[in-house]
Amino acid sequence: MNEVGNVNIKETIEEKDLGVFATNDLKWSRQSSAGATKANRVLGQITEQLLKRMTPYSANITGSNAYWYQRLCELEATFEQKKPATIFFTFSFADNHWEDLHNLLPGGFSDDPKLRYENVLRNPHLVDWYFSVRLNEFLRVVFDGILQCEWRWHRYEWQARSSIHAHGAARFKNDPGLTELTTKVYIGRKAEKDITSKEITNQKKIKLLELKNEGKEAELIVINYAETLLSAMNPRNCPSCDIVPEVHPCTKDFTKLNPNQYKKDYEERKERLSKLSKY
Known about the structure:
The protein folds into three domains: 2-58; 65-172, no CATH class; 178-227. The chain contains ten helices and three strands; from the N terminus they run H-H-H-H-E-H-H-H-E-E-H-H-H. The chain has helices at 2-11, 18-31, 33-58, 65-82, 99-104, 113-122, 124-146, 178-195, 202-227, 262-278, and strands at 87-92, 149-158, 164-172. Strands 1-3-2 form a three-stranded antiparallel β-sheet, with helices on one face. Helix 2 (18-31) packs antiparallel against helix 3 (33-58) and helix 8 crosses helix 9 (202-227). The chain is extended. Residues 44-168 form the Helitron helicase-like domain. This is Helitron helicase-like domain-containing protein.
């Protein structure tokens, strides 16, 4: 902050006497009502001038409003110059359950959930560092290497319980033009509804049928492309065996819960949902 202030003063020498002017204006305000009006006007001008000067410099302070506004402008420029993103993504991790993470924390991995939770709270710097390392490596290998990412952008956020996660956007080189295609799908669906109207001419009906067909073709392209990016699978399940998959370690069996815990479980679930709605 001091360096930013010093740079600002050096680059705006004409503002070095603003404090003197402000002091004189305050003296005038004590002498008459006219002086008070003039003092308020001058002080308002000084404040506005200083705020205009401060905004570009506060953009260098990570986390400030000006900083995030600058990042917003950069992202909007990327969308305009390099075309919109193919996907928007969110990455998070089970920081209280990840054994590899806890092996790096003091004391190592514990079978006691309470100890793991406390260890995460005591070592937020290691938890955040590990998440950022794993995320950047994943983006480098999967997004850049396998999916041939043209550009990508992400930012970190923290939940109310201080758990880190990341939001971002990326564009792939094989993007078929999803923005244009989805626009055609929307127009085609609207045209399909308008065709049923009795108050249209044959010429307009032909045009609507063309838009409808273009929308169907665009929708098929979008679906086929999305299927190359999305998949759902349970790696613990045998595809050729008719068996119940192994229960995930994070899953709780409600039949094993103590009835006295029901109310607490409902309260915690309600609290999470209320925080999500505010977010």
